[in-house]
């Protein structure tokens, strides 16, 4: 897509969705919840399973611990669901790469635009294994881990602690500023019925009193591992016009890839921002919009510092200024002049659903289906996932032109 508009721009639309309850540990296997949620999304779109001829997901099991991957229990691949949902599926695929949510959306859009499928179910199923999420049975370190694990540099907490600490020191930022981000996410998540944090907002004092787990990252800087499933139905713009809900069109997407070879958990701040800026440039180029036209920037927050990084990479504020930008209600979604970067609660306000809360908020708001949370006049949204340099983003619009 570099140097030109996305060829399938606004030719494919999201036309329905469903979301399971987000729980610490579900009472049923993940596969059963996924099948139920998939059927509900198809029905929401005014269709039947027989109408679905494509199934796409990203089945990555996001744990750094020693947990078994079992189809239908801890992971739900597209093939597993296709065998139980739709005998007519002719395009069944799973995304494996940088940015699981933008990646699987891109695969679905390309399938519809190319004619490989007419109607595609896209879903993400997340599992929280019993026991400690990052439990590690490793007795010896091999490969790249041999250079980090023996020193205690293991897992995503250490990974995000490094660039966050860099950010605080380089820009003379106060860790207390992050309370504005986390409190905003939890405020909005507490309003959503399926959220793990439903009716449980957080105060700045509670955030600052939380235990430190990987300095400067505290407990509430991290999303909580959960069981949960969300599914969406995508189809052509022409077909979408005949379905019951207002279509939300996919205008473009982009993903990033580190330009330098690093150890797997080595994420220096300059890598994040330099590659993230390039990812954003390609995103705006592909979609034909820019940050000034975005009403609904839903920034990824699996760890709270990602909100700073995305704000700056996407051009909503200068580099090094995000910690100031989030203060004084600037990201308060209840204020008419606030930039609603976490109006859907994000991962911090819902649970570890990866980029699903961001995608879902774009769909609900642009389709006019957000209920009491509906924002007037929103027409362009951006849903981000993971880090700007190791993830991606999708632009959605309510207008096909």
Describe this structure in words.
Helices cover 31% and strands 15% of the residues. It is an alpha/beta fold. The longest helix has 19 residues, at 269-287. β5 and β6 (217-218) form a beta hairpin. It has one domain (12-131, 224-397): Thiolase/Chalcone synthase (Peroxisomal Thiolase, Chain A, domain 1), CATH 3.40.47. α8 packs across α9 (305-313). It is built from twelve helices and eleven strands. The protein is globular. The chain has helices at residues 30-44, 78-85, 100-114, 155-170, 179-189, 204-209, 237-240, 269-287, 305-313, 322-325, 346-350, 356-366, and strands at 12-19, 54-57, 91-94, 119-126, 212-214, 217-218, 228-236, 248-255, 296-298, 380-385, 392-397.
Keywords:
401 residues; Peroxisomal Thiolase, Chain A, domain 1; globular
Tell me briefly what this model is:
The chain has helices at 30-44, 78-85, 100-114, 155-170, 179-189, 204-209, 237-240, 269-287, 305-313, 322-325, 346-350, 356-366; strands at residues 12-19, 54-57, 91-94, 119-126, 212-214, 217-218, 228-236, 248-255, 296-298, 380-385, 392-397.
Strand and helix map with partners:
Blueprint: E1 12-19, H1 30-44, E2 54-57, H2 78-85, E3 91-94, H3 100-114, E4 119-126, H4 155-170, H5 179-189, H6 204-209, E5 212-214, E6 217-218, E7 228-236, H7 237-240, E8 248-255, H8 269-287, E9 296-298, H9 305-313, H10 322-325, H11 346-350, H12 356-366, E10 380-385, E11 392-397
Parallel strand pairs: 2-3, 2-4, 9-10
Antiparallel strand pairs: 1-7, 1-8, 4-7, 5-6, 8-11, 10-11
Helix pairs in contact: 1-2, 8-9
Strand content: 15-25%
Shape: globular
Please list the strands of the largest sheet in the order they lie side by side: 3-2-4-7-1-8-11-10-9
How far apart lie the N and C ends?
19 Å
| Number of separate helices | 12
Counting structural domains, the number is 1
Write down the Rg: 20 Å
Secondary-structure element string: EHEHEHEHHHEEEHEHEHHHHEE
């Amino acid at each position: 897509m570099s140097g030109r508009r996305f060829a399938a721009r606004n030719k494919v639309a999201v036309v329905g969705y469903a979301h399971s309850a987000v729980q610490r540990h579900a009472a049923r296997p993940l596969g059963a919840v996924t099948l139920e949620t998939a059927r509900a999304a198809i029905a929401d779109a005014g269709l039947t399973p027989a109408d679905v001829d494509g199934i796409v997901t990203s089945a990555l099991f996001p744990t750094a611990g020693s947990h078994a991957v079992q189809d239908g229990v801890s992971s739900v691949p597209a093939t597993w669901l296709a065998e139980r949902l739709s005998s007519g599926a002719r395009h069944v695929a799973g995304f494996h790469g940088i940015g699981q949510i933008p990646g699987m959306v891109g695969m679905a859009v390309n399938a519809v635009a190319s004619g490989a499928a007419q109607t595609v179910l896209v879903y993400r199923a997340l599992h929280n294994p019993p026991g400690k999420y990052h439990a590690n049975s490793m007795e010896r370190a091999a490969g790249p881990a041999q250079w980090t694990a023996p020193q205690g540099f293991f897992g995503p907490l250490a990974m995000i602690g490094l660039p966050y600490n860099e950010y605080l020191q380089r820009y003379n930022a106060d860790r207390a500023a992050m309370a504005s981000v986390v409190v905003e996410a939890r405020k909005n998540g507490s309003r959503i019925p399926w959220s793990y944090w439903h009716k449980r907002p957080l105060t700045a004092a509670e955030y600052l009193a939380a235990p430190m787990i990987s300095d400067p990252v505290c407990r509430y800087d991290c999303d909580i591992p959960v069981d949960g499933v969300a599914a969406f139905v995508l189809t052509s713009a022409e077909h979408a016009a005949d379905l019951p809900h207002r279509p939300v069109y996919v205008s473009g997407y982009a993903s990033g890839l580190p330009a330098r070879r690093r150890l797997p958990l080595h994420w220096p701040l300059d890598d994040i921002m330099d590659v993230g800026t390039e990812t954003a440039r390609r995103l705006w180029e592909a979609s034909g919009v820019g940050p000034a036209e975005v009403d609904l920037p839903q920034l990824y927050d699996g760890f709270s510092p990602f909100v700073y990084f995305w704000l700056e990479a996407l051009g909503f504020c200068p580099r090094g200024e995000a910690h100031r930008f989030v203060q004084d209600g600037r990201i308060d979604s209840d204020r008419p002049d606030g930039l609603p970067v976490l109006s859907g609660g994000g991962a911090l306000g819902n649970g570890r659903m990866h980029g699903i809360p961001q995608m879902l908020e774009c769909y609900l708001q642009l389709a006019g289906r957000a209920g009491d949370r509906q924002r007037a006049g929103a027409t362009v949204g951006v849903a981000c996932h993971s880090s700007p340099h190791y993830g991606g983003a999708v632009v959605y619009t309510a207008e096909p032109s």
